[in-house]
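Narrative summary of target 7.
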Amino acid sequence: MALPNGGGGYQLGDGNQSEPVMGYAAAPVTATDTATLTAAQVLNGIILATPTAAANYTLPTVAVLEADLSSANIGSTIDFVIINLASSNYDITVVTNTGWTVTGGGVVVVQEASSARFRARKTGATSWQLYRIA
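Modeled conformation, tokenized:
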């Protein structure tokens, strides 16, 4: 079923409640071995990881992240997923950086051949909280 086009943008739910709710996603980004993730990687939403050894993925500093999120207010959230495609027993540890706090401990491990979904929430002028939600 085609979505109606109204004035250059797509309309959802305007007169036809059976329309599917659709979103847009850029192609997933990649990461391999130990690195500091870029804001673009986190904001992309899906990181396909192929570490060749146990790896640490350090979050970008809050200042770097917020340079790309200038309209974020306290309470704003972003979600992202790390999919660990390692074919051997290479786990990924997600490490915080300046301005971050992790709920439930200082490190989060994404085991090989698994994935983890995260939600980041702005909690202050220069602070974000990271939650592993799945």
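The helical segments are 39-44, 62-67.
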